[in-house]
Amino acid sequence: MQRRTILTATAAGAAMLASPMLRAQTLPAGPVKIIVGFPPGGGTDALARVVGQKLSTMWSLPVVIENRAGAAGVIAAEFVAKQPGDGNTLLMAHINSHALGTKLGYSAELDFAPISMVGITPNMLICNADQPAKTVKDLVALCKAKPGQISFASAGGGSAQHFALEMFKLQAKIFALHIPYRGSGPALVDLIGGQVNYCFETMTSATPHVKNGKAIALAQTRLKRAKGHPNVPTMDESGFPGFESTVWYGLMGPSKMPPAMVQRMNED
User: Fold this and answer.
1) To 5 degrees, how large is the angle CA 87–CA 246–CA 136?
2) At 157, is the pLDDT very low, low, confident or very high (cuts 50, 70, 90)?
3) Which of 117, 171, 192, 204 sits a CA distance of 20 to 30 A from 51?
């Protein structure tokens, strides 16, 4: 009897949500902002703009991207956590702000309404075309020959890219210089320009530069090669057994958002 009641209630709720008038009520009133915790030019920003464009078309509402860079995405997350639950302010959340950060001014579990996973990507170990070491083996040898002189950019201290670097340093037993940036965009600009030598960067951000030849991919950081880069070896294949480092992105809102609005956004 209880199971039948639950099924009936669920079906009724789904039918109500399917009603065009009620579905319209589950949308925010007015423009929607998706907050990104990094400058333009990185993977988080690129994904947010793709999602924003699609949702703007579906909802017939302006969906704009606002960049609030700093602290590896934590500043943006803290801002969104304090916003009203009206759905007008959303966050393109990131592993940095919701899984790696410490001493946060918000609760990653309690202060947000998870809407949808957007994507998962490995990192790539890349350099600019002028660097002498273009394989992982040669890079390890170079770092050992010049301890502390080979620089690695990251999207910020405590970011997923920074953690990948530290894992590499520990396993390779090398000393290298870490240069933190406010996001992937400026880090990649300096990498390509030769101000820094190497970096672990998300495949989302790195791929355009690898494809146009401005960056060289030494390795990727999942245990199996990505279909988009079948010729780039994994770190596991390059002498680092079990080396895996991925980044996830997800759309979230403040915790006080109505459940029906969260469900509507998730479906869309």
Assistant:
1) 150
2) confident
3) 192
